[in-house]
Automatic annotation (TrEMBL):
Keywords: Signal. Residues 1-21 form the signal peptide. This is VWFA domain-containing protein.
C-alpha cells in the first residue's frame, strides 16, 4: 500500500512537472503569480487575494520583521519549472464576494507562410539564374531556419510545360531539401527561346492551382531580368499584357528581384497590331514590377543577395495580405458573461458564473506576439441556488482567414470551475 502511494505521488509530481514545463510555449497558458510580495503594510484586499490564491498553494509567510508575503508553498514552488514564478493552473474555485483572477498568457505564432520562388527560365536569363544558385540555396536554407510554419515552392516560368503556363519544379512543401534539389532540375530544363511570355504571366489567377497554396499568407519571389519579351501573334492576339492594367493584387504579395539589364522595371514599347482585326498591344510602362509590388504590399529589390532577400521577405510577411485579403491572425473567444437567459441561450456554466477578460469577450490578435490578459471569474448572485457545481470553461482561438466555411478551434484553454 505504501509503495503504491509513493508511486502515485511520483506520477502526480511528474505530471505536474510536465504541465509546468509547457509554460508559455503553448498558444494559451493559464497561470497565476503571487498576489503581493514582501510588505508590512498589506491591505484587507491583499489578505483576501491571498486567501483566494490558497486554492493553488499560496499562503502567508513571514519575510522579515513584521513583514509578510503571499508565497507559494515550498514543495509546490520546487516543482514549478516556469520562469517568473508563473504557476500553471487548470482549476478555479469561485466565490460570491470577490472575483477570482487568472492570468492567461497568449503566444500567437507567426502566420503560416508559402514562399513561391518564381525563376525566369528563358535561355537568355537562365545563365544568370544558374550563376546565382549558391545565393538561392542560401536563401532557402535560411528561410527554413526562420520558423517551422513556412513552406516553399520553386517554379521556372515562360513556356508551358504543364499546359498552365509554368514549369513547377517543386510544389509547396515544408521539405526544404527537396526545394534545393529542384534547382538542379531547373538547370536541366529544355532550351526555351526568348519570347513574349514574361514570368509575370504566372501572377494571374491560375497560380493557386499551379503550386498548391497551403498557408495563411503567400509571397511570390519573382526573379528575372526583364519586364517582358517582344510579343508574338498567337491566334490573332498578342500574348504580352501590361499587367498593372489587369493585376490589382489578391491574396499574395510580390517581392520582385531584378537581376540584370534591362531589369524588371524596364519599359517596353507599344506594338502594332499583328493582324488588321487586333488592337495595338499596350506599352509596358516603366516601373511595372515596383507597381505590382506596391499593389500587393510587397517590395522591389535590386540584385539577389540571400541575407537581404530573407530580411525583405520577413518584413513583407508582417504586412502581407492573408487569404481572402483579410488580416492574418486569430479571433479569441472568451465565454460570454452572465446572462439571465437559460437555454436555448446558455451562458457560462448555465448562468452560475460571470466570466470576462481585460480585452472583452471577443478580440483579435496577430502574431508573432506574446501577451497576457486577465480573466475575471466570479460566482453569479443566483449561482448556488442548485447547490455545489463543477463545470468546464473554455477560451478558444480561431484562425480568422483560413480556407473553408467551418473554423475549428486552433487552440483552447480549459479551466474547471467549481463553487458553492
Amino acid at each position: 500500500m505504501k509503495t503504491h502511494l509513493v508511486s502515485c505521488l511520483l506520477i502526480i509530481a511528474g505530471f505536474f512537472r510536465l504541465i509546468s514545463a509547457q509554460c508559455r510555449q503553448d498558444f494559451f497558458f493559464p497561470h497565476i503569480t503571487s498576489p503581493f510580495g514582501c510588505t508590512g503594510n498589506f491591505t484587507g484586499f491583499q489578505v483576501s487575494d491571498c486567501l483566494v490564491a490558497s486554492q493553488w498553494g499560496y499562503e502567508f509567510s513571514p519575510c522579515g520583521e513584521e513583514s509578510f508575503a503571499c508565497s507559494l508553498k515550498r514543495e509546490i514552488a520546487a516543482n514549478n519549472s516556469c520562469p517568473n514564478a508563473e504557476l500553471p493552473v487548470s482549476t478555479v474555485r469561485v466565490n460570491l464576494n470577490r472575483p477570482t483572477f487568472v492570468s492567461l498568457g497568449i503566444n500567437v505564432p507567426r502566420p503560416t507562410l508559402d514562399v513561391i520562388l518564381l525563376l525566369d527560365a528563358v535561355s537568355s536569363t537562365r545563365e544568370r539564374i544558374i550563376a546565382l544558385k549558391p545565393q538561392i540555396v542560401s536563401f532557402i536554407r535560411q528561410l527554413e531556419d526562420v520558423a517551422e510554419n513556412i513552406h516553399i515552392s520553386v517554379s521556372g516560368t515562360e513556356e508551358s510545360f504543364d499546359q498552365r503556363g509554368t514549369s513547377v519544379l517543386q510544389r509547396t512543401t515544408n521539405n526544404f531539401a527537396e526545394a534545393v534539389q529542384s534547382l538542379d532540375e531547373f538547370e536541366r530544363l529544355p532550351p526555351i527561346p526568348d519570347g513574349p511570355r514574361a514570368s509575370l504571366r504566372f501572377l494571374l489567377p491560375s497560380i493557386t492551382n499551379t503550386v498548391g497554396f497551403r498557408s495563411e499568407q503567400q509571397i511570390v519571389v519573382l526573379v528575372g531580368d526583364t519586364s517582358g519579351r517582344e510579343p508574338t501573334c498567337v491566334f490573332d492576339r498578342f500574348d504580352r499584357t501590361s499587367f498593372p492594367s489587369r493585376f490589382s493584387g489578391g491574396q499574395f504579395s510580390v517581392v520582385a528581384v531584378s537581376i540584370g539589364d534591362p531589369g524588371l522595371n524596364a519599359p517596353l514599347p507599344t506594338q502594332a497590331p499583328c493582324t488588321r482585326f487586333t488592337p495595338f498591344v499596350e506599352a509596358v510602362t516603366a516601373n511595372q514590377a515596383s507597381t505590382i509590388a506596391n499593389l500587393t504590399q510587397g517590395a522591389f529589390v535590386e540584385g539577389f543577395d540571400a541575407d537581404t532577400l530573407l530580411q525583405t521577405v520577413m518584413n513583407v510577411s508582417r504586412n502581407a495580405p492573408g487569404n481572402f485579403g483579410q488580416p492574418t491572425g486569430f479571433d479569441i473567444s472568451v465565454p460570454q458573461p452572465f446572462s439571465n437567459f437559460r437555454r436555448p441561450f446558455p451562458s457560462v456554466c448555465d448562468g452560475r458564473v460571470q466570466f470576462n477578460s481585460t480585452m472583452g469577450n471577443r478580440f483579435f490578435l496577430a502574431g508573432p506576439l506574446e501577451t497576457t490578459v486577465q480573466l475575471s471569474i466570479s460566482l453569479a448572485n443566483s449561482g448556488c441556488m442548485d447547490g455545489p457545481f463543477q463545470c468546464p470553461v473554455t477560451v478558444s482561438a480561431f484562425r480568422n482567414n483560413q480556407f473553408g466555411g467551418f473554423r475549428p478551434a486552433a487552440a483552447r484553454a480549459r479551466l474547471i470551475v467549481s463553487g458553492c
